[in-house]
Amino acid sequence: MASNSISAYTDIYRELHQPVLITAGCFAAIAVILSIYLNLQHLRSYTNPAEQKWIVAVIFMVPVYATESVISLWVPRLSLACDILRNCYEAFALYSFGSYLVACLGGERRVIELLENKSREQLGKPLLEGADENRSVDQRSFRNFFFRPCTLGKDLLVIGKFGLVQYMILKTVCAFLAFLLELFGVYGDGEFKWYYGYPYIAVVLNFSQMWALYCLVKLYNVTHERLQSIKPLAKFISFKAIVFATWWQGVGIALLCAFGILPKEGKVQTGLQDVLICIEMAIAAIAHVYVFSAEPYCFLPVSKYGKVTTETTKKELKLEQGHDEKLAVLERTETKAEASGTSVRESVQEIVLEGGQHVVKDVVLTFNQAMGPVEKGVTKIQETFHQISVGSDDQEEESELKVEQRVEANLRGS
Questions:
Q1: Phi, psi of 279 (to 5 degrees)
Q2: For the whole model, what pTM was predicted?
Q3: CA atoms of 204 and 177, how far apart (whole Å)
Q4: What are the residues whose beta carbons fall under 8 Å from the beta carbon of 24, sequence distance 6 or more?
Q5: Interval 324-362: pLDDT, tens
Q6: Residue 108: how many CB atoms within 10 A of its CB?
Q7: What is the DSSP string of 36-48?
Q8: Any idea what the Cα angle at residue 22 is, between residues 20 and 25, rounded to 5°?
C-alpha cells in the first residue's frame, strides 16, 4: 500500500515537474532581471559608498535565492548544496542590513554618540563623568537590554553587532556541518528524529536567527527617529519578510511532511520550497525597486561631491542703425556642475575590498568579545588552583614546624 502511494506521488511529480519548472523559471527570471537592473543603477550612481555597498549586498540576496532555487528544482540532487549556499548568503545579507542601518546613522562613531546621549537622557546622568557611577553601572546591566535598551548606551551597539555576527558564523558553520552529515547519511533533511542531525541544527539556527533579528529590532527601536529620512519601516519589513518566509516556510513544510499532511518524498518537499521561493523572490524584487531605489543617490549636493565651474564667452556683433554701424559686445556666462562618479568596475572593487575588510574586522571583534569571558574564567580557575596549592604548601610547612617543635620538646624533657 505504501509502495503504491509512493509510486503515485512519483508519477505526479514527473508529470508536474516540467510545467512547474518553467513557471518557477519565469518568476526567477523576473527577480534576477529586476535585481540586477537595480544593482547596476546603484553601481552607476555610486556616490555614497558607506551606504550603497550594503544596499547592493542586500539586493543581491534576491538573485542568489532565485537562481539557486531554480537549479535545485531542475537538478534535485544539488538541492542540499544550493541550500547551503543560500543559507550562507542569508546570514551575510542580515549582517549587511544591520551595517546599512549603522551607515545611514553616520557610522559607528555617530551611532555611539547617539546611543550615549539617549542613555544620559534615560538615566538622568549629568555631563560630568564619575557622578553616580553605581547607578549607571546598575542601569547598564544586561537585563535592561530586554526592558530598557536606551539605557545601555554604546553597549547596545556592541550587543547588536555581536548578535548579527554570531548568526553569520553559526549559519555558515551549520551549513557545512549539514553537508558533512549528509555525506555520512545522518543529516536527514526534514526528518524530526533524534538520530538525525537536522532537528538539532534547526533548533540551533532558529535560536541564533531569532536572537539576531531581536538585536536588530532593539537597535532599530532606539534609532528609528533618526532613520525617518530613509523610510526604514518599509526596508525593515521587506527584508525580514524574505528571511522569515524562507526559514519558517522550510520548517513548516518539513513539519507538514512529518505529520503526513504532505508526502514525505524528498523531491516533493524540496521542490515545493524551491517553487515558493522563486515566486516570493519575484515579489521581493518588485518591492526592492521602490524600497531600495537608487534615485536618492543620483541627486547629491555638488559642493560636497563635485566642483562648480563658470565659463564666460564674449562675442562682438555689428548693429546697423540707418547708415551707421555700431559694435556691440554680447557676453554670456555658463555655470557647469561636475559631480564625481565612479564606474561599475570601480564600484565593485570598492564593495569587495572595503566591505570585506569591514566584515573581517567585525568577525575578529566578535571572537575577541566571545573569548574575553572565557579567558577571565580560565584566569579565575588558575588563580583558584594557585591559591589551593599555596594553601596546601603552607599547611605542609606548618605541620612540619609542629613536628619539629614536638621533637625538640621531647628531647628537652628527656
A1: -65, -45
A2: 0.71
A3: 12
A4: 69, 70, 73, 274, 275, 278, 279
A5: 666 666 666 665 555 455 666 666 666 666 666 767 777
A6: 14
A7: HHHHHHHHHT---
A8: 105
